[in-house]
Amino acid sequence: MATQEITEDMIFQCFAAAQQSKDIHRTAESFVDVEEYENQVMYPEFARWAEKAGYSELASLFRKVAGEEKLHAVWLRELYTEMGVPTRGEDTRRAIDALKTIRANCDALIAMNPDSVVEKALKVAIMVEEREALRIYPQFREQALAEGNERAADVYQKVVESESEHAQWFHTALRDFQANSRVATA
Ligand SMILES: [Fe+2]
Ligand SMILES: [Fe+2]
């Protein structure tokens, strides 16, 4: 039987719920969903993988970050309610449905090489957090400032700081993981 190898790209695609729109406001709006799916789908699933692979401390870190992503969704939803932008939920729903179909596949891959899957989940987490900390939210903040909306700029800045912290935590976790991993990493 051919051995299937899960790639970072496969994991990233599994969890890519965000809809990037040409209109920055629509993109910003869809990030309520991104935060929700990180809270409800992506990080709980990464925590489940880490737990299954025997890394309970790492599972706790994924759950801690999941909790903070919920907070981001709350901040953004508050902001958009004030600004009169309707909240949406279809993307999160779609991600939850997709997860049901990939879960069995993920479990089979974890059984084959748990450390490799956990390491890749960490790399995806870093990619997601850095994308938000360095590109997405700074862009939303700049746009808000250009429009004189300081309240929105403050909210985005708060998210930037939190996402930067998440990226740092995952970098440290990856370093520790690679130093202590039971198998040599490629
Ligand atoms: Fe977030
Ligand atoms: Fe985050």
Distance between the first and last residues' Cα: 23 Å
Strand content: under 5%
Helical content (DSSP H or I, runs of 4+): over 70%
Helices and strands: which structural class? mainly alpha
Q: Uncertain spans, ≥5 residues at pLDDT below 50?
A: none
The main sheet comes to:
none
The helix count comes to 6
Shape: globular
Number of strands: 0
Compute the CA-based radius of gyration: 17 Å
Mean pLDDT: 84
Small molecules in complex: fe (ii) ion
Listing every helix as H and every strand as E from the N terminus to the C terminus, the arrangement reads: HHHHHH
Structural notes for this entry:
Helices cover about 80% and strands about 0% of the residues. With about 190 residues, it is mainly α. The protein is globular and about 50 Å long. The model has no long low-confidence stretch (mean pLDDT about 85). The protein binds fe (ii) ion (2 copies). One fe (ii) ion binds next to helix 3 and helix 6.
